[in-house]
Task: structure prediction
Amino acid sequence: MSDIVVGLDIGTSNVRVVVASYTEDGNLQVVGVGTSPSTGLKKGVVLNIESTKQAINAAVESAELMSGHEINCCYTAIGGNQIESINQKGFVAVEHQGGEITNSDVERVIEAACSIQIPPDRKILHVLPSTYTVDGNEGIKDPRSMIAWRLETEVLIVTVAVTTAQNLIRSINQAGYDVKNLMLKTLAASRSIITKEERELGAVLIDLGGGTTDVLVLADDAPVCTCSIPVGGQMVTKDISIVKGISFDTAEKIKLSAGCCWEDYIDKYEEVLIPGVGGRPPEAISRKELCSIIQPRMEEIFTLVNEKIQVQTSSKKNVGNIVLCGGGSLMPGVVELAAHVFGTSAVRIGNPLKMGGMIEECYSPEFATATGIVLSFAEEARKQPEKNRYSPVEAKQNNGGIFKKLGDYLKEFF
Ligand SMILES: Nc1ncnc2c1ncn2[C@@H]1O[C@H](COP(=O)(O)OP(=O)(O)OP(=O)(O)O)[C@@H](O)[C@H]1O
Ligand SMILES: [Mg+2]
Result:
């Protein structure tokens, strides 16, 4: 196995692969990408292993061709509404009362926060600690070495339906690749598109995919909420196809070439040609009419996201910056529409942060998850290169918090 890190994002519309390798001076650089249309998933869940396997093979083979590396294993991610999350609090008395808080105290307080019953059909994917409270003083990012009596924390526990994860992993295995580790898709994307400043100020990542819209809310440099709406770009295409009486594929082409979700951007004389079906002559419609089909659905998606966030983060502070990714974020007018629905001008498209050797194709919000998977696991790989090459890595939370072994979780899925 060569010294490469492979991120595989299996989506409802597309499978995407990013291959990165280390340069001699230790920098990570992207050396290959691959994309293939995906047909075996519905709303982010694998329903047809055979067609998912074929899409994985096609995407990985083109990434192999571009990178010149043979790919045997990968890291992947999971999302959609099979993911659930819950905020839990825990507190412990510091072991050396009135003494220093140690790693073991931090581990114990997170364990205490995790002492909830998980249904047998679900498994924990991540335990993500936010800030700590030390003797009543809130908002401490790393409590170790502080002198205290009592330690509290709040964690976000992310769980996944076991069979959904198993089917995803099975598709990859049947395509001929080992899965070294698995993570939450939006957490991966956040690594690649959210800046340090945004993480601290508070940010909402919205991944506008084909089958689902997945959301991750970050506050005080930590994830505090994750949710998913079972509606995505495919639903927008379906709307066009139904209203104009054309096939899904034709509607998709029209959406990609002339779609817009912010009416003010369209000149009233602009027209789009809708091909005829069954001998019906083609019809020229105004682009504004096309927009009147797209905009309400996109607005509905943002409204649902906003409502979910309000419910799930009611106790949290202002969550701030909205960062959009996924194919749907390429729709003209999406920033303006999101700004309108969320009532903020702090909205932007999340292009992946530049890595060395970034191939132009993956500097796109559609590649946020795949590049994020690479970034998430490559950091660990740099610290423990041998371990990363031959066995599941241990994922460590970025805030110096606790270190749940993702590899251990992964074993439970096999
Ligand atoms: N330029 C564009 N304008 C509008 N929509 C676009 C554009 N490019 C892609 N899309 C839409 O983005 C969607 C696919 O996005 P993406 O590839 O991120 O989804 P996915 O990751 O496969 O799906 P999911 O994350 O839901 O499982 C499709 O519905 C497609 O129509
Ligand atoms: Mg996706």
Remarks:
- Residues 82-161 form a domain with the Dna Ligase; domain 1 fold (CATH 3.30.1490.110).
